[in-house]
Specification:
2 copies of one chain form a homodimer. Chain A is of the alpha/beta class. In chain A, 42% of the residues lie in helices and 19% in strands. At the A-B interface, helix 13 and helix 14 of A face helix 13 and helix 14 of B.
């Protein structure tokens, strides 16, 4: 069984090109995870997800703890076998979804009690239970339970929230069962306050983790503030461990994150947008439901080799969404995942070639031009 | 361009093993079509449909005439290109869906006027317009416009309805534009009256078609009556042309149809049932939503090689349906299409080997045994 390991292959400014090894294989960084909330990447067969270039899947502890339950997943052989994803899997701690989905939440020093959004049943999630659940799921990368500080927060509220998360991080470290090829990541908090972000980074380093996430961003503070917080946080994280910006983001967020030294990203955007007819392209987003595509013979993105672009006209994709046919979301999800993975591949290559600034400039210029209009 | 052609390869009693050639390739008979109502097989990429063994797709004239319109499909290069299905395509006439879906229908000798179920817009479908639409769609097998006589019907009503359909069949024959590799099929009607079925068969033969469908069955008359009507109809159809039992059916309906000399079948059952969690197996149907599967480690059907059976436990499939995840319908649709195509392959083989009676006896015995219970 290979040890969990992060290899820094090359750097370009703050940006890093690396590789993470786990018990279930490796993934390249900077990398973007495939979102498998309830143990499935929505609308995709797993082999198709791998064909897009995705190597790491992220599942949600909150969803899996309610249904089918971690004990059942363990009895069925763990998440990899359950969902037919032999590659590396990361699980979040459950904390974020408890705050956004569950009912009657109560946070104390001990943990959080809540009622399921599915059936109202009572549950408790503590740092120790979160570690146990992620262990039962057989997650390769376990995330600490933290409180994602609501935005905006006063300095006082943000400090108290962050410090409790740091005490929880210590309890997670104690409860986590070490296994070869498995990792525990700490999560930096501190809202929009640079001194709290620095204090949090120091606290996490003191405990010692296999990787470091930046949490509590992309929660409404805006891209400029998010980038400022990365600038105020990343320099205080260890150089020799992977860095993960949680829940981010749009393509231009990711480019900005890589430029600032982030290695790992996850976001529901490519899959969720795909299901509603929004496609990502080199020239910005395209809403395929728009009537201008009704007779459009062109592919969605002529530069893309995914099945949606290789085999169909925009007119057909438009028809599928108008007729509410499943194949529409299936094809646009495939396209969006391909777009994201191609972007990550290009970012890795630009970083290797120390060409990232130039790549980013061209990327932003292309994005700002907007979709090519169909000829009349 | 190959001519449209039916080759009878072998026979076993009334059952036939054959091959149909079209301008877009051939398909083996007895064969089951892939249902692509609105220009897509629901929940499936076309290459996956082909991987199940399906060779012929059926699209619905009613749906395509309303949206995206046949003129648009023609401008986009025809249905094969539009939906990325290079193989043979059959289209129905639109008549059946007009009667089951449209509003304010009025049938006269001229044709049928109706309002769209989508937006209330007024439309007219005549034998001539149905031929034109199917021509614009570039369908390899065009079906005559007929009236699917409602069930039950008095002899008088059934006779009048059937005779109008025969007059429409003559108009379809006149309006159909002959092209190499393209075919026009007549449709036998006559409700549950053997003498009307025989009269209809004679009328169709008199006009002369490239294939003969049996319509107006599987509309509530029950399997026994349906088989009686096949016994009263098929002997009066030409031996050297393919025979198509429209909208049928359950696996045991198909076995009974093949035993009675039917070559082609279509039904929404494998795709529609797949979307609601019902799976077809050698041991009858399984409802994967049933709670007994919640911890069931077994595959859906150990004898099946489809992705649903090869890669997942029943517990996982159950979880997908409980969580309303798209992959559930996607996997069960794939399984059901595989089940149907495997059944057709076995029926063809048994017919070649003159072993069909024996095959059918084993089939019915297996089906009656029911799903194997999970071990405790």
């Amino acid at each position: 069984m290979p040890a969990f390991d992060f290899t820094l292959l090359s750097q370009d400014g703050a940006a890093r090109r690396g590789r993470v090894m786990t018990a279930h294989g490796s993934f390249e960084t900077p990398g973007f995870m495939a979102t498998a909330t309830a143990g499935t990447i929505k609308g995709m067969h797993p082999d198709a997800v791998r064909a897009t270039g995705a190597e790491l899947a992220i599942c949600n502890t909150y969803h899996m703890m309610l249904r089918p339950t971690p004990e059942r997943v363990a009895a069925l052989g763990g998440l990899h076998k359950f969902m037919n994803w032999p590659g590396p899997i990361l699980t979040d701690s459950g904390g974020f979804q408890v705050m956004s989905l569950a009912k009657l939440r109560q946070i104390t020093e001990q943990g959080v009690t809540f009622r399921s959004h599915l059936d109202g049943s009572a549950h408790e999630l503590t740092p120790e239970r979160s570690m146990e659940i992620q262990h039962l799921l057989d997650s390769n990368i376990t995330m600490c339970l933290d409180e994602c500080t609501p935005h905006p927060a006063t300095h006082e509220v943000a400090a108290a929230s962050m410090r409790m998360s740091m005490r929880w991080a210590e309890r997670c470290r104690q409860a986590f069962v070490k296994r070869e090829g498995y990792a525990l990541f700490g999560i930096n908090q501190g809202s929009t306050y640079p001194n709290l972000r620095e204090e949090s980074a120091a606290a996490l380093k003191q405990i010692g983790f296999d990787g470091y996430a930046v949490g509590g961003l992309a929660v409404g503070e805006g891209q400029e503030m998010m980038f400022r917080m990365l600038d105020a946080t990343v320099p205080f994280l260890p150089e020799d461990k992977p860095r993960y910006l949680m829940g981010v983001g749009k393509p231009d967020d990711i480019v900005g994150g890589v430029l600032r030294g982030i290695d790992m990203f996850d976001c529901v955007m490519p899959t969720r947008s795909g299901r509603t007819g929004q496609a990502f392209t080199a020239r910005g987003t395209v809403n395929i439901r728009n009537a201008r595509h009704i007779e459009d013979k062109r592919p969605l993105d002529a530069s893309c080799g995914c099945p949606a672009c290789a085999n169909y006209s925009r007119a057909y994709l438009h028809h599928l969404f108008r007729a509410e046919e499943m194949l529409g979301p299936m094809l646009l999800t495939w396209h969006n995942l391909t777009y994201y993975q191609t972007l990550m591949r290009d970012l890795r290559q630009a970083t290797e070639q120390r060409n990232l600034q130039n790549f980013a400039a061209i990327f932003y210029e292309q994005q700002s031009r907007g979709d090519i209009e169909a000829l009349a």
